[in-house]
Design goal:
Strand content: 15-25%
Radius of gyration: 15 Å
Strand order of the largest sheet: 1-2-3
Helix content: 10-25%
Number of strands: 3
Number of helices: 2
């Protein structure tokens, strides 16, 4: 695991590496997104404003509310194969 601080962060971030024991099928790339938040976004305060991109399709959209963000994710995942394996995260959610 990469234990170096990422740019702009004072916290240590654990990044998965290919040698980790994580089952790659639990995190398929067709279910991956990039989120980018505007400077004024205050997630804890309820100001959710930014851009989201679905990695495999390249489809991207601006969002201004949590509802718009969740809607984009739902629409992007429609028809995508559910290739999740059973792990602790899946059992809780």
């Amino acid at each position: 695991m990469d234990k170096t601080p990422h740019e702009g962060s004072s916290k240590m971030v654990m990044a998965a590496t290919p040698g980790d024991n994580e089952d790659a099928r639990a995190l398929p790339t067709n279910r991956a997104f990039v989120l980018q938040f505007r400077r004024h976004a205050d997630i804890k305060g309820g100001c959710v404003d930014g851009r989201i991109e679905h990695i495999t399709s390249g489809r991207a959209e601006l969002f201004h509310t949590l509802e718009e963000l969740v809607s984009f994710v739902g629409e992007s995942l429609e028809g995508q194969p559910d290739t999740r394996s059973k792990n602790a995260f899946d059992q809780d959610h």
